[in-house]
DNA 3'-5' helicase (Acholeplasma brassicae), 697 residues
Amino acid sequence: MDLSILNDNQLKAVKHIKGPLSVVAGAGSGKTRTLTYRIGYLINQGVNPLSILAVTFTNKAAREMRERVVELVGPKALDVTLSTFHSFCARFLRSEIEYLGQTYNRRFLIIDEDDSKQIIRDTVKELNYDPNRYNSNRLKSLFSKYKNGQYDELETIEQEIYLKYNDYLAYNNSLDFDDLINYTIKILKENPSVLAYYNQYYEYLLIDEFQDTNSVQYDLIKLLSNKEKNVFIVGDPDQSIYAFRGANYENHERFVREFKAEVVILDQNYRSTKNILDAANQLIGHNKNRQGEKNLRSSFDEGPKVIYEQRDSDKDEAYYVARAIEIIHQGHTPYQNIAVLYRSNALSRIFEEAFLRYNIPYTVYGGISFFQRKEIKDMLSYVRVCLFPQDNISLKRIINVPRRKIGQTTITKIETYATIHKISMWDAIDQMDIKGTTKQNLLDFKEIIIKMQNEIARLDDLIYVVDLVLAISGYKQMLNDEGNEGKDRYENILELKSVFYNGAIDYKGTNLEKIEQILDDMALKTDQDIVEDKDTVKLATIHQVKGLEFDCVFVVALEEGIFPSETAFNSGEIDEERRICYVATTRAKKRLLLSCSRQRFRFGQLQMNAPSRFIEEMNLEDDRIQKRKQVIVKEVAPSDFMTSSDDIKIGDKVTHEKYGFGTVVQKDDNVTRVAFSIHHGIKLFTNGHPALKKVIN
Ligand SMILES: Nc1ncnc2c1ncn2[C@@H]1O[C@H](COP(=O)(O)OP(=O)(O)OP(=O)(O)O)[C@@H](O)[C@H]1O
Ligand SMILES: [Mg+2]
């Protein structure tokens, strides 16, 4: 292992063996690299790889880190536990969940966000509450916050839904993502012998992207660390962008305080050119209450200037980006080294259209992810039911897909019977008294599953699991009958084969044991995990590219109301938005292009937006930005306006005593929305508000 490529502070961190250490460092300063080398260094110093637990933010990052460490020290590194918090907890619970008592057993199902929402919807319906008022999206995020300790109390009806939702999960031996972490903590807290075992087992903990841990994860780290406290955390408080999930950038200081940790600061950036880094540093300098303020230095020349472009319409902006990509691509930058980043998923569409037109190959992160597709979930549910026929949630998904004349009424009847008799639906089918053909249809279904079970157990290569399920279930026939759309879905399913293929290599044990691990992995996939390394331009939200880097980055739709987002009202939230923008700009290695548009269709309405304040804050050397500052000042000359404000309509120019010149961007029955200059952003007024004066051109 060659340590000479590390700088002094990196080396100091890598060589730190005993006791807690916090590496606080800016973007691209080699935090992740330092953590990777430290794992290698520990192993070289004779530390048992089994006693090392390293936590990364995504499964993909974990896989890449494992590959790197294997390169550094060889196959011994395969024994290191390298996973996300959720995967670690899933693994822990697969062996320890029975400590929770009767309700759960090891064969639990991990349900994803969509499943959770569906169960909440069903619960609200069953309790006869208004599904609009008790909207499943809102409740899901509320329950999640509640489970994470971000909320102290739920209102009475919410509490009722919450309890019933949890009962349903427990009854069906299933856990949502939040449960994974909470139950792990619960077991460790309540069972000193289990805690002692894990404390003895894991002697070294390493956490990447520490700035995005929430308090529950923090508690878990604390529990897992034994009295030696060999805890190594790396992170950048300026890149903390998961406040909405309870992440707290102050955890760094808390860690240093509570663990009495040593601190190492890295301030040499090895990713971006000087121009890019200057812009990023200027931007983040506007945040108040920064923790561990640092001044990042670039290791490179100035490089090309950061480019800023404002277009008249969102479509124009997308075409501008497409053309720029073509030029950059012709200059020998592969598509895969280019990323287009935006604040929220909905903004991708207009760029996709432009890329299609220009024949630019692209991949969108997120959206409907591969593993959320119906056909993929159906396939996995079949496999689940083969492994665990008692899994009601999976069984319900596929019992009548393809159609087997088993209607919703029958399914509900079986479920009710099963609940009353405290048995699974699978067992209920045998015991229930059902008439004629329906009974036969149900028995036929069971027969299909039993046949699959037998065949899967006998397979000598797991790559055939998918074909087998497709054929025996009749799913393939069903897709065949669907024509073109069926063909697409069939192709998606074929992609699953590689997952089983890889899983078969990665895991040991019987077919069933391997499949069990593969299913867990898939349940815990994140957006970053899905995108393959094809030569395509990556379209992504900023949250999805944390920790990654690209030669060329476009940050688009940089407009007041979009980025910073309209919902970020107070200065704390604006600071979070600014950190998100900082993450975006620091993904770029060589080129950074910022763009926005004057008009944009959003939520079905035409909206006028001012350029984001963040552009000005980057202090770019760009005449147009300087000129715009002057224009704004000039346009608020007080003599040009009349006083009536009743007839203000969308597109009108207005002025306000405090906010100056602005444009009306939206108006409904009650409210007028006005976009002011970058300093003030979008403001809301009741219609006819006297403070708004229309400007006569
Ligand atoms: N000492 C070094 N010499 C040369 N290159 C380095 C050095 N340290 C790190 N790098 C390179 O710098 C880039 C950024 O490193 P890395 O991703 O580890 O930074 P990071 O601090 O984790 O960034 P982020 O804050 O975005 O997570 C990588 O391409 C890495 O290989
Ligand atoms: Mg990193």
Summary: DSSP finds 27 helices and 22 strands in the chain. The chain has a mean pLDDT of 89.
